[in-house]
Design brief:
By secondary structure, this protein is of the alpha/beta class. It is built from nine helices and 13 strands. It has one domain: Ribonuclease Z/Hydroxyacylglutathione hydrolase-like (Metallo-beta-lactamase, Chain A, 4-Layer Sandwich). The chain is 24% helix and 25% strand. Strand 9 and strand 10 form a beta hairpin.
Length: 268
């Protein structure tokens, strides 16, 4: 069965009420997590967290607003590439990096992890790749974080075999089977938060785990269907789809048997 190692690569801060409507103005810390998924046949890195490249590319100009709106705290030892090296692993040891979506806190470490192959949503990348300026900022995309040779190493998850999910993963019904993972890594679409937003069901010795990425920012969201601030709608690709996905997470949680991991789950 697969194992998951959790890395925290920096964090941002927000008022609690941005994440859960009515929660007050207390400033909460939200870690940027990445996950190393290992099976007998491969290693996959789910997202990359923050890196020094994020600080470099948001230091000035229009993207400096990214850091003003979302204050970021990061030091070099927290970089996922550094944490992997401490485990004796390097980019060439990864079967692929899987990007849940293209916000800066999920792609900032890509330049440190060349030449690892990249898996992503083709539809999401198509909607994102040409964004620049204010349009990119509004979508949380920092073009400078993308390595020059990025598109030479891409595989679209839409090219993978689509399979029917077992009943215990309802209401989710279909997923893309990661090649070489023997059914232990199944990639699902979690629409709403960002273009091409993805999650993954991972089969571990302790049962299924759903890497839900940014489909919620607090367990209260999927446990109690607690809504974020309406201001959060500004950065969402599709708020209606976001709430549909959140409802599915709530159903999955209520029936039990699956642990849900959120990328930015903080103290709230």
């Amino acid at each position: 069965m697969a194992t998951i190692t959790v890395f925290e690569a920096g964090y941002c801060t927000h008022p609690a009420c941005m994440v859960v409507r009515g929660a007050g103005m207390a400033i909460c810390r939200f870690p940027a997590r990445a996950y190393l998924i290992e099976t007998t046949r491969g290693r996959w890195l789910w997202d990359t967290g923050y890196s020094s490249h994020f600080l470099d590319h948001t230091r000035q100009g229009i993207f400096a607003w990214y850091r003003r709106i979302t204050p970021v705290h990061f030091n070099a030892e927290e970089a996922v590439a550094h944490q992997l090296r401490e485990r004796g692993l390097f980019a060439q040891d990864l079967t692929a990096i899987i990007l849940s979506h293209f916000h800066g806190d999920h792609i900032a470490g890509l330049r440190d992890l060349r030449p690892a192959p990249i898996w992503l949503s083709g539809a999401g990348w198509s909607a994102t790749r040409s964004l620049r300026g204010i349009g990119a900022l509004r979508k949380g995309f920092v073009p400078g974080l993308i390595p020059p040779d990025f598109e030479c190493s891409l595989t679209m998850i839409e090219t993978f075999e689509q399979i029917e999910l077992p009943r215990e993963l309802a209401p989710f019904t279909h997923a893309y089977a990661a090649p070489g993972a023997d059914g232990e890594l199944l990639i699902v679409e979690l629409a709403g938060h960002a273009a091409g937003h993805l999650g993954a069901f991972v089969a571990t010795a302790n049962g299924w785990i759903l890497l839900a990425s940014d489909a919620a920012w607090s367990p209260l969201a999927y446990r109690e269907r607690a809504k974020p601030s309406r201001l959060a709608h500004f950065i969402m690709e599709n708020p209606a789809q976001y709430y549909e996905t959140l409802h599915k997470l709530n159903q999955l949680y209520r029936q039990g048997g699956v642990n849900i991991y959120l990328t930015h789950e903080g103290a709230l």
